TrEMBL record:
The modification 4-aspartylphosphate is found at residue 54. Residues 2-117 form the Response regulatory domain. Keywords: Coiled coil, DNA-binding, Phosphoprotein. It comes from the Bacteria. Pfam families: LytTR, Response_reg. It comes from Flavobacterium zubiriense. This is Response regulator. InterPro entries: CheY-like_superfamily, LytTR_DNA-bd_dom, Sig_transdc_resp-reg_receiver, WalR-like.
């Protein structure tokens, strides 16, 4: 499998090249590039299977790479190498994009390569990642729905219901969107925000819309819309603590 490394730090490129040679002998590094412009030229020339791409580089961010290619030209997968903060890492997970946190761990590198070989990533995933990182906060998230990318104001999300590998996102204006992400993906990115909590194996709720907590019959939460959300028994204490914090 042919690979190209794009990173503005020479030391990082050399280190990653050595790791690949030692731990991933099936990967052939055909080019090393110090900026996005060089990377784009190398991709067109060598047509790699894999691009290992730093995000934070002078001039162009690594997130702009796909802007230089038409959809039918993208026959390579991307693994991002990054030193990004915690929020951005949640955006990676939500977007189902592989990333390696610097300094790169050899075992994680091998695992990322193995995942890549098993499943090709979708262009849609890169778009979601780019939008969510560019937003830079949890004020708005981009989510996939059918052939569309929907932008949701997180303050207007009342609750999310998990349906296997999909989730239904319900908003305060009465709209709902079926999204091709499971509930765990939403939990990873939204529940860092104190407004949100996974209260049941099938539900995440926004406490801003909770009006009643009913502790009888196993426990449930009533939202402003009148919908009742079941509560897992082990979440009862956490819910009471959350209500205390939210209502202060």
């Amino acid at each position: 499998m042919k690979a190209i490394l794009i990173d503005d730090e020479k030391r990082a490129r050399i280190s990653l090249s050595i790791l690949l040679e030692e731990y991933c002998p099936n990967i052939e590094v055909v080019a090393q590039c110090e900026n996005l412009a060089e990377g784009v030229k190398a991709i067109r020339k060598y047509k790699p299977d894999l691009v290992l791409l730093d995000i934070e580089m002078p001039g162009h961010s690594g997130l702009e790479l796909l802007d230089f290619f038409d959809e039918n030209e993208i026959h390579f997968s991307i693994i991002f190498t990054t030193a990004y903060n915690e929020y951005a890492l949640q955006a990676f997970k939500f977007s189902a994009i592989d990333y390696l946190l610097k300094p790169i761990n050899p075992e994680q590198l091998v695992e990322a390569i193995q995942r890549l070989e098993k499943q090709k990533q979708k262009l849609e995933n890169y778009t979601i990642l780019k939008e969510n990182i560019n937003n830079g906060s949890l004020d708005k998230i981009a989510v996939p729905s059918g052939n569309s990318l929907i932008f949701l104001d997180t303050s207007k999300i009342s609750h999310i219901k998990g349906e296997g590998s999909y989730a239904e996102v319900f908003c305060s204006n009465g709209t709902k969107n079926l999204v091709s992400r499971n509930l765990k993906n939403f939990e990873d990115i939204l529940c860092k925000d104190k407004r949100f909590m996974r209260v049941h194996k099938s539900y995440i709720i926004n406490f801003e819309y909770v009006v009643v907590y009913n502790k009888s019959d196993g426990g449930s939460l009533e939202l402003e819309s009148g919908i009742h959300i079941p509560v897992s028994a082990e979440k009862s204490l956490s819910i009471l603590e959350k209500i205390q914090i939210i209502k202060r």
